[in-house]
Design goal:
This protein has eleven helices and nine strands. By secondary structure, it is of the alpha/beta class. The radius of gyration is 21 Å and the shape is globular. Strands 3-2-1-4-5-6 form a six-stranded parallel sheet. It has a three-stranded mixed sheet with strand order 7-8-9, covered by helices on one side.
Length: 287
């Protein structure tokens, strides 16, 4: 199943990601509507031609006309929304999301949906250290990764539709992972890195550090400028897996610590060579 311009798309939640989705899809000719909490956000989206129409309350008519609904909400808000309003979603509607954790919500939401409504989860690996629709920017999708997260309850057509949405938005690579594998990968690749950045920024209270630093410290701690409400929820929602990855990281850090303490330069250089070889694979190639 392909995402064609006949599909009417409703976005629930117009923050950074929801706004960036709206900006991209509307620019490409799709019919995009939105539901979000603040009228000022709807006004901004209309003024900047991100959506065709929108509502600051849950409008059954917008839900009824939608072929695809994209939920750009925090995980617990997404679950609560489906509990309260999921019955309004019409049969044959496909819903997807942008949430950063999967096991704790995917199966529960799939079990709550009306007959004929299919939820195919997804995770756009893109963002900024800012929040709000005023920071919406579809360019964040370029050269970024997009993960489709199906379960056995999803049809192949819907998995294809979700992947096509990622391609339409401009993501560089589309991957497919189970909810369990997704949460394991994200614990290491995203959540752990944010833990490291936060703990590093909290490790030294020397004043005026910004006057002496080079780019290496700025690059390493860029993501320490963090949305504490969102990331604390993500950490706790994936707690056991994240703690496991933190333990593995601590082992690796201790190994490097001991090479320095013991003056073991050969082992230290071996770790550095392994690090360099693995890091090269992460370099983004511009299309």
């Amino acid at each position: 199943m392909k995402l064609d311009e006949s599909k009417k798309i409703l976005i629930v939640g117009l923050g950074l990601l929801g706004g960036s989705y709206a900006q991209s899809l509307t620019r490409q000719g799709y019919y995009v509507t939105a539901i979000t909490r603040k009228q000022s956000t709807i006004d901004y989206a209309l003024e900047h031609n991100m959506i065709t129409k929108g509502s600051a309350f849950v409008d059954p008519e917008l839900i009824k006309e939608a072929d695809i609904i994209i939920f750009a909400l925090y995980p617990h808000i997404f679950v609560d929304w489906i509990k309260q309003y999921g019955s309004l979603i019409q049969p044959k509607t496909v819903i997807t999301d942008v949430t950063g954790v999967k096991q704790c919500i995917v199966y529960e939401i799939q079990s709550m949906l009306p007959q004929g409504v299919e939820f195919i989860s997804a995770h756009p690996m893109a963002g900024k250290e800012t929040a709000g629709i005023e920071y919406a920017d579809e360019s964040i999708f370029k050269n970024a990764n997009y993960i489709v997260v199906p379960t056995e309850n999803n049809s192949l057509d819907t998995v294809e539709l979700c992947g096509d949405l990622g391609e339409t938005l401009g993501f560089r690579e589309i991957s497919v992972l189970s909810p369990e594998k997704h949460d394991r990968m994200i614990a290491f690749l995203s959540q752990l890195t944010h833990c490291i950045a936060v703990s590093l920024m909290c490790a030294c209270d020397e004043p005026d550090l910004e006057r002496y630093t080079g780019d290496s410290f700025r690059d390493l701690t860029r993501i320490a400028n963090i949305n504490d409400e969102m990331w604390s929820e993500l950490f706790l929602s994936n707690r056991e897996t994240l703690l496991d990855e933190m333990d593995k990281y601590r082992e690796s850090f201790d190994k490097l610590y001991n090479t320095i303490k013991n003056g073991d330069r050969d082992e230290m250089r071996e770790m550095m060579r392994l690090s360099t070889a693995r890091r090269r694979k992460f370099n983004k190639e511009k299309k």
